Automatic annotation (TrEMBL):
<comment type="subunit">
    <text>Heterotrimer composed of PaoA, PaoB and PaoC.</text>
</comment>
<dbReference type="Pfam" id="PF01799">
    <property type="entry name" value="Fer2_2"/>
</dbReference>
<keyword id="KW-0408">Iron</keyword>
<dbReference type="InterPro" id="IPR002888">
    <property type="entry name" value="2Fe-2S-bd"/>
</dbReference>
<dbReference type="GO" id="GO:0042597">
    <property type="term" value="C:periplasmic space"/>
</dbReference>
<dbReference type="GO" id="GO:0051537">
    <property type="term" value="F:2 iron, 2 sulfur cluster binding"/>
</dbReference>
<keyword id="KW-0479">Metal-binding</keyword>
<feature type="domain" description="2Fe-2S ferredoxin-type">
    <location>
        <begin position="51"/>
        <end position="127"/>
    </location>
</feature>
<feature type="signal peptide">
    <location>
        <begin position="1"/>
        <end position="37"/>
    </location>
</feature>
<dbReference type="InterPro" id="IPR052914">
    <property type="entry name" value="Aldehyde_Oxdr_Iron-Sulfur"/>
</dbReference>
<dbReference type="GO" id="GO:0046872">
    <property type="term" value="F:metal ion binding"/>
</dbReference>
<dbReference type="Pfam" id="PF00111">
    <property type="entry name" value="Fer2"/>
</dbReference>
<dbReference type="InterPro" id="IPR006311">
    <property type="entry name" value="TAT_signal"/>
</dbReference>
<dbReference type="InterPro" id="IPR012675">
    <property type="entry name" value="Beta-grasp_dom_sf"/>
</dbReference>
<keyword id="KW-0560">Oxidoreductase</keyword>
<keyword id="KW-0732">Signal</keyword>
<keyword id="KW-0001">2Fe-2S</keyword>
Length: 223
């Protein structure tokens, strides 16, 4: 019986000792900021690293001095005031920030501006204007391819790029024969547009708009 008690006490002592050791290890790291505040010494934050970058945005050269951590999305919205490109999830999941870089679409929230030195950036403002709409913009209006409109700029940029991808023979996840040119089909377009979320649910109207721009030749689309 005494032996059992000794064993239990030893086990209890080990557990208590381990907990005290862990607490002691954590206290210095927690106390360090408080010690600095108590001494009146301000915490030092390293200055941001900046760099110069030149982009061509909608055909116009733009040279900016930026914090190197600035995303392309924030440059467009906050520095160049091109607010057509929207910030939705800021995690590359919703597609509201889609723009075209050298003709290929990207999520601008996931890309640093300094990565695009000399690149040609096309935003929704660069596709068309209220006085001269791009055919895809006009088709979205005609087929009511939007409701709240928040995702619409990204949807339009993505739709323009998706048709170009098919035209250039770039395969998607649903392309059956990778050695053949992808079909201009509703399945291809749905797959290629799947990264652009419309929370209002205007997907069928969006497909009708894309089909019109494609000359009504999308296989499987509504006539």
């Amino acid at each position: 019986m005494e032996q059992s008690t000794d064993i239990n006490q030893t086990r209890r002592g080990i557990l208590i000792g381990g907990a005290l050791s862990a607490t002691a290890a954590a206290v210095p790291s927690m106390a360090a900021p408080q010690a600095g505040a108590a001494s009146g010494t301000p915490a030092t934050t390293p200055p941001p690293v900046t760099g110069k970058v030149t982009l061509r945005v909608n055909g116009q050269p733009q040279t900016l001095e930026l914090d190197t951590r600035t995303t392309l999305l924030d440059v467009l919205r906050e520095h160049l005031h091109l607010t057509g490109t929207k910030k939705g999830c800021d995690q590359g999941q919703c597609g509201a920030c889609t723009v075209m870089v050298n003709g290929r679409r990207i999520n601008s929230c996931l890309s640093l501006a300094v990565m695009h030195e000399g690149d040609e950036i096309t935003t929704i403002e660069g596709l068309g204007t209220p006085d001269k709409l791009h055919p895809m913009q006009a088709a979205f209006v005609k087929h009511d391819g939007y409701q709240c409109g928040y995702c619409t700029p990204g949807q339009i940029c993505s739709a323009v790029a998706a048709l170009d991808e098919i035209k250039r023979g770039i395969p998607s996840h649903v392309t059956g024969d990778l050695n053949a040119k992808p079909l201009l089909s509703i399945d291809e377009l749905r797959e290629r547009m799947s990264g652009n979320i419309c929370r209002c649910g205007a997907y069928s109207n969006i497909m009708e708009a894309i089909n019109e721009v494609a000359g009504g030749n999308v296989k499987g689309a509504k006539a």
